[in-house]
Amino acid sequence: MGAMDDFLLTGNGQAVALRTVPRVEFQGFRRAVVTAVAAGARLAALPVRPLPVQPLPKRAMAPGSDLEILAVLALPDCARLGLLAAVLPERWPALTPDCPAAHWFEREIAEQWGVEPDGHPWLKPIRFAPPYRGRSAGLAPPSIGRTDFFTMAGIESHEVAVGPVHAGIIEPGHFRFLCHGETVHHLEISLGYQHRGIERAMLGGPSPRGIHYMETLAGDTTIGHATAYSRAVEALAGLTAPARAEGLRAIAAELERLANHIGDLGALAGDVGFLPTLNYCGRIRGDVLNLTAQLCGSRFGRGLVRPGGVFWDAEGERVDQLLGSLETVRRDVTGAVTLMLDAPSVLARLEGTGRLSAETARRIGLVGVAARACGLERDVRFEYPYGIYHLAQLPVNTWPGGDCFARAQVRWLEIQASLDFIGEGLADLPAGPCHREVPELAAETLAVSLVEGWRGEICHVVGTDSAGRFAFYKVVDPSFHNWFGLALAMRGQEISDFPLCNKSFNLSYCGHDL
Amino acid sequence: MLKIFQERCRQKYRTMAYPDGPAPELPDRFAGKPVLEGPCRPDCDACRNVCPTGAIAIAPESSAGLELDIGRCLFCRSCEKACPEGIIRFSREHRLAAASREALVIGTGPRGPASARHALATRLFSRSLKLRQVCAGGCNACEADSNVLGTPVWDMGRFGIQFVASPRHADGLLITGPVTANMRLALEKTYAAVPEPKIVIAVGACAISGGPYAGHPEQGDGAASLVPVDLFIPGCPPHPLTILDGLLRFLGIVREDR
């Protein structure tokens, strides 16, 4: 791919020396990223890091010369990742007008570093968190709850505000519907209520708390983020986890996918008033969480994945028990979901609701279930395989349509694929140890770790300083890519269809807010 | 319609017998209440070095005995693994809830579960308790395992306990998360909207002590930093059985000694 000539190519879970990442002038960086994305590359992460402080004597640095921006592009054609860096000016011509997938990333950069992308069409905070350093303009960051960045004016147009405390038991976020009558013309999503400072706290690590930040980063994706973290640490330490550990990680990851997808299908049924499937799936989801607890004691997989491998092995008797329980789950979930997807009253509510085109999904960089429900073949397990997925491949389950039905259908297909995968994986676990000691991390090294969580692509970009400690730690939860997809899916919809659309995406608030 | 009835028969009646019958069996690897079998070596700090939340301390009034604060504990077993003497061990005891914060600090030797009974709640709410859940920085694990109590298996509606949509319909709050700075105002307003008399339940290590986020400037080290808390339910997250047991003992629906 000629567009990729400027980039350093690396692999998922590989370490590269920081100095080998090519650095270009910002204009060249912008041109290279925009060209590559137009040619089919995908923006996986766009982290910014402060450049190491110059040794004494202190020199007055030119404004904006102390930050470096790094593009991490996923290249599906060659299953590689492309890296390119540049010094980030205080103000820069925004990438977003030419590369909409950069939209949320540039807002994050502006908020975190007090710099400004010129010409960004939708510039406002994403987390309402204090910046990592002073703002050049001397403005205080807006406090959370401010929502008047973009409004719609006109006769009979009105706004409906929802949250941060919602009616159900869900995480906090604020939604503002810009409506004319019952029709939503745009949904303004205002997050940040869950911000706990995880990326900041990771600096200087690895520390005893690191794995716990990862396990609670998005609690329903404990295995996903703990695996991405562990694989990044292992890459920086020059270590490969034992095959048995990778097998157990993948089984736990598919159990996590199974539990969440089953819960989501039940919740979708509940949102259209189809109560049998709501109640069955609520229970079956718990049964799957209990299978994870059979593995490690915790229903959410806490304490299982650790850098170097896994904490708990699964001996023969345990494997047999799990295999038996899995068949019960298969029978119960098949009955519950078939009931729902056979009911015309359910299909009438799901079909055509909250539609996104494949072209929109591609342009805004959608990932995971939401992308596959637009017909896009995006799945880290297939495109950038890691661990046991090198050997045991899963089909990429897509469905055209981009509506709530497609998102339900993709989940149902993935439930069946995960059930098969777990069954085969348990019966065929590699022999050997399940943990290795992790040596010191390499200094001045960078690793990118991609994992397919149940919502979609999880990306951790980690770099070490001269002492082998974390100098920067960037987490991109799939929700980071997909929240804007929900906003676009709501355009032209009835406001009463929001719960259904929202549940069909089921994005993470804390995974976004970090 | 026929299919719905058929499936209903296949899926069966699943509500557990507990509390009249036995509690569901927890998995063998479940980390419940820690047990400290002291005394330990005075020069050893292996457990305190690995604890991510500083939950372990030397007891002030004993010869090198330990104290473990299960309000901070993430039940990660790091201390159990690190202890060279095998003094710290996690039992499968699920009854962890307590009505006072101090009762969550566990010392050396065997002890029964701390009291979770609340006089006002027992008198007013033991036949009907409506709760508004507020997630204030929770990771969606405590929320999910509170929510699961509404499914047919746990069916806490049997006891008149229910989550409601508005604080104005509620008798109290069930709070999860360390109380992020960005949720502070929303939590204050939600608490103010609950009519008196009201109770507050803190679920999970974050809501009790900040959990892994304790000390971060982005949060407030738990619900008690903002509102008075009447029941503490430890865990990361607590098992649904731990939460249900806490609620039932809090309301006097099950006796403390069972």
Description:
The complex is a heterodimer of chains A (514) and B (258). Helix content of chain A is 39%, strand content 17%. Chain A has helices spanning 26-38, 103-113, 198-202, 210-217, 222-237, 243-271, 275-296, 316-341, 344-350, 358-364, 368-372, 380-383, 404-427, 478-489, 498-505, 510-513; strands spanning 8-10, 15-17, 23-24, 42-45, 48-50, 67-75, 80-87, 91-93, 116-118, 157-162, 174-180, 183-190, 305-306, 309-310, 445-452, 457-464, 470-476. By secondary structure, chain B is α/β, with parallel strands linked by helices. Chain B has a domain at 119-250: Rossmann fold, CATH 3.40.50.12280. Chain B has helices at 2-11, 46-50, 78-82, 119-125, 141-147, 184-193, 205-209, 240-250, and strands spanning 34-36, 56-58, 66-69, 88-90, 105-106, 129-135, 161-163, 172-176, 199-203, 231-233. In chain B, strand 9 (199-203), helix 7 and strand 10 (231-233) form a beta-alpha-beta unit. The longest helix of chain B is centred in the C-terminal third of the chain and has 11 residues, at 240-250.
